[in-house]
């Protein structure tokens, strides 16, 4: 089930949940949420930030390799093995 983010429209209106935004899992075939489930204030859907890469995320070896980098790891005395 996809995760959607909603926030009160206009932001700052509504209750403590929707005034700062909330996340909700909904079936895809369900009609878009039009109001806060708690207070009923009008809400609008936020563009999900899940799919955008986080720049602060540390680069792992596997993702570096999949990005085309050659990953070298130090073995013993000055020898490097290509992973
Ligand atoms: Zn609300």
Give a quick precis of the structure.
This protein has 83 residues and is mainly β. The protein is built from one helix and five strands; from the N terminus they run E-E-E-H-E-E.
Describe the structure.
With 83 residues, the chain is mainly β. 7% of the residues lie in helices and 24% in strands. The protein has one helix at residues 61-66, and strands at 3-8, 22-25, 43-46, 72-74, 80-82. The protein has a three-stranded antiparallel sheet, with no helix packed on it. Zinc ion binds at residues 14-15, 17-18, 36, 38-39, 41.
List the helices and strands and how they pair.
Layout: E1 3-8, E2 22-25, E3 43-46, H1 61-66, E4 72-74, E5 80-82
Antiparallel strand pairs: 1-2, 1-3, 4-5
Zinc ion (ZN) binds next to loops.
Distance between the termini: 37 Å
Give every kind of bound small molecule, once each: zinc ion
Question: Approximately what portion of the residues adopt beta-strand conformation?
Answer: 15-25%
Shape: elongated
Low-confidence stretches: none
Query: What structural category do the secondary elements indicate?
Result: mainly beta
Mean pLDDT: 79
H/E order of the elements? EEEHEE
| Biggest sheet, spatial arrangement of strands | 2-1-3
| Cα-atom radius of gyration | 22 Å
Biggest sheet descriptor:
3 strands, antiparallel
Descriptive keywords:
83 residues; 5 strands; binds zinc ion; three-stranded antiparallel beta sheet
